[in-house]
């Protein structure tokens, strides 16, 4: 079982922000911004390249709810998903990084 499936199963604790039947949002263990949330589907999907449009549509709505819950909708935020090796994906379970709480700089490579 992957590490995020263990979080879904409650085998690894997480600091949850929002949850419904299909998704969980929780604080990243190693934040790189004042607010750094990970948003995952409960179902194991490897990455963005393999998610169905149907699941992604529901996930979009959930991510918007998380941003609102944390009052990030007013000042803005960054939404990132690392896909595969070159994208720097370390956990092979689809997740979006929701980053905010400060004016973020743009970096690449
Ligand atoms: P990736 O590099 O795959 O896009 O991001 C994986 C993220 O998961 C990293 O930001 C890392 O800090 C976070 N992470 C890894 N293991 C855990 C964990 O057990 N709990 C939490 N909350 N975050 C984790
Ligand atoms: Zn998984």
Automatic annotation (TrEMBL):
Entries under PROSITE patterns matching the protein: HIT_1 (PS00892), HIT_2 (PS51084)
Locate the HIT domain: which residues? 3-109
Q: Which InterPro entries match?
A: Histidine_triad_CS, Histidine_triad_HIT, HIT-like, HIT-like_sf
MF annotations from Gene Ontology: catalytic activity
Q: Where is the active site?
A: 95 (tele-amp-histidine intermediate)
The record places the motif (Histidine triad motif) at 93-97
Give the protein's recorded name: Histidine triad (HIT) family protein
Originating species: Hydrogenimonas thermophila
